[in-house]
Design a protein that fits this description.
heterodimer, A: alpha/beta, Rossmann fold, five-stranded parallel β-sheet, four-stranded parallel β-sheet, 9 strands, 39% helix, B: mainly beta, Alpha-Beta Plaits, 2 domains, 2 helices, elongated, binds zinc ion
């Protein structure tokens, strides 16, 4: 039985098959409307994350399956002190697959160890959030045509951003990608990531102003710069505008650049950008559903042969 | 070298880094065994300058080689039976160790679920890196409890 704990659990070949399936789902939704008839997805969310939970639930409903679960610890047996391993053994009797979100790192791995059904890590503290990374990869592959040969700028909080670290590591398995890190000095990419980039001989540069580099980018991945990450209010006010994408900055970018964001955004992308054809972040949320559909099918063993039948 | 008497059956752990014998004594749970143990500190060694030794009189099956390999795989294990060395065992880095060290990451699931075994997995043989099976936190110092 297969689980998904980290984006690197799948080889690049397996990811290609997953993304091919997701793209076929995108084109032929109707064909997949009943592949999970009679199957149940349990969403076990020990902390609220409405967006992620709804994305999983929409994915299962699109496949004809049903969903059950809880959306915060206080409404679950965890509030009564039940361990994760006991909970998953019980959930295994109720459902066919489980998506688990937990504030503690490694909780989904504990579940996977004791589970009789596939477990998907839907975010465990600051550790992993693999379906976000799969969403990012599918979006790039679909809109860019491939996962190689491009320059990606990552902008905002690169120090604490789990999403960004995870995406960089996943992209390091592909060819000829140049990374441009755009952040205030206080929120630079951590040294251990720099070490990994050097080990893999990846081309990268670090800058502090988005305007200086935006014209060189094929992809711009925006993240939020949170006020509480700064030592003082003056620094935040002085710096925050460098990391806000607006029409004026976007005018300096290539016509073909795509703007991504894991959402929710606050003010780092101004709404005037939303109607620009380069804004791809809502499309990205849609790809999040397709990739979760493909993932649920794959982990339930329902993906084998599906695409081959297509070609006949 | 100081002689603390021959043992009939048991093992002699040789070439322990000077100062580590007590740690190993505890890690192997020898304090919980009702048997004769000699801890020799700072013995002269041609190879190491100074070294520690442990002599334990017990059933040779009692020794957890994985724990020992994790602590220091350069230790020599002499198995004694009938007063003679019958075997010299070499140690390897174990693939996984359970309940030898604890995960220190305060955000790890093991910090709130006390019954969970603390499992560390060898993730990089070259750098001898072990990581928590759950949260992937690096084991900081190998003989740190
Ligand atoms: Zn841990």
């Amino acid at each position: 039985m297969r689980h998904l704990m980290s984006p690197l659990d799948f080889s690049t070949g397996e990811l290609d098959r997953l993304f091919d399936l997701a793209n076929d789902i995108e084109k032929n939704m109707d064909k997949y409307a009943h592949v999970c008839d009679g199957k149940k997805l349990a969403t076990c969310f020990y902390e609220p994350s409405t967006r992620t939970r709804l994305s999983f639930e929409a994915a299962m409903l699109n496949l004809g399956g049903n969903v059950l679960g809880f959306s915060e610890a206080s409404s679950s047996s965890a509030a009564k002190g039940e361990s994760v391993s006991d909970t998953i053994r019980v959930i295994s009797c109720y459902a066919d697959i489980c998506a688990m979100r937990h504030p503690k790192e490694g909780a989904p791995m504990v579940a996977a160890t004791h589970s009789l059904i596939p477990v998907i890590n839907a975010g465990d503290g600051g550790h992993q959030h693999p379906t976000q990374t799969l969403t990012d990869l599918l979006t790039i592959r679909s809109l860019n045509g491939s996962l190689s040969d491009f320059t990606i700028g990552l902008c905002g909080d690169l120090k604490f951003g789990r999403t960004v670290h995870s995406l960089i590591r996943a992209l390091l398995r592909y060819e000829n990608i140049k990374f441009v890190f755009i952040s205030p000095e206080e929120l630079r990419i951590p040294d251990y990531i720099i070490t990994e980039l050097k080990e893999k001989n990846a081309e990268f540069e670090e800058v502090t102003k988005l305007e200086d580099v935006i014209g060189t980018l094929d992809i711009l991945y925006m993240t939020r710069v949170q006020r509480e990450r700064f030592f003082n209010e003056e620094d935040y006010i002085r710096l925050k505008d460098f990391y806000i994408l607006n029409k004026a900055k976007l005018a300096l970018a290539k016509e073909t650049m795509m703007v991504l964001h894991p959402l929710p955004r606050v003010n780092e992308i101004s709404v005037e950008v939303d109607n620009d054809k380069r804004a791809a972040y809502f499309k990205q949320a849609q790809y999040g559903v397709y990739v979760r559909m493909a993932l649920i099918m794959t982990l339930l063993g329902l993906a084998d042969g599906v695409l081959e039948n297509n070609d006949r | 070298m100081l002689n603390v008497g021959k043992i009939e059956e048991g093992f002699v752990l040789d070439h322990i880094k000077a100062g580590q014998s007590l740690d190993i004594y505890h890690k192997l749970n020898l304090d919980k065994l009702d048997c004769t143990v000699a801890i020799i500190k700072n013995a002269k060694s041609n190879k190491m300058g100074k070294k520690d030794l442990l002599k334990v009189e017990c059933d040779v099956e009692m020794l957890d080689l994985d724990v020992l390999g994790f602590i220091d795989h350069s230790i020599t294990v002499n198995v004694i039976k009938g007063g003679e060395i019958i075997e010299k065992k070499s140690l390897k880095l174990p693939k996984q160790i359970t309940n030898v060290i604890k995960c220190k990451n305060p955000r790890c699931i093991t910090s709130i679920e006390q019954e969970l075994p603390h499992i560390f997995v060898l993730t990089d043989e070259k750098s001898e890196t072990y990581r928590c099976k759950y949260c992937e936190e690096k084991a900081v110092k190998r003989w740190d409890i």
